Amino acid sequence: MLQTNAPGAPGDFDFMIGQWSVQHRRLKDILNGGDEWIEFKGESSTLNTLGGFGNVEDNHLHFPEGSVRAKAIRSYNERTGQWSIWWLDGRNPGVMDTPVVGEFQDGVGRFYADEEYHGEAIKVRFIWDATDPEQPTWAQAFSKDGGESWETNWEMRFTRL
């Protein structure tokens, strides 16, 4: 697969291209005031697509109850200067999550979406921190109050293989 970026392609997610070991930390009871975290391992591999205007991340998550495959699909909109990120989970292969949309500033990307969680309207936030591109982090948070407050419910720490 051709991995070179086309002229003008953003380099925001170039740090993710390659193979990774992932340490996951996920909140057990989301949006209920819980503070118990579940930790598990995973692997991911990211390939450039669309000449650098997109990429696809293949994930293998080893939840305590069993392993799951999933994909993150990202594309860049030159007109808006923003990325869209979709999540496709092997446990529900006929549905892609609502994309989070946002951009990077100084090595940190912030992405947002309006979504539902257990029938309740929420906001979703992803934060990609690539200030150390050899050990980037990702965090997901939900808000029930329109973004006034956020509960981080999933964190990932990547180590390059």
TrEMBL record:
Name under which the protein is recorded: DUF1579 domain-containing protein
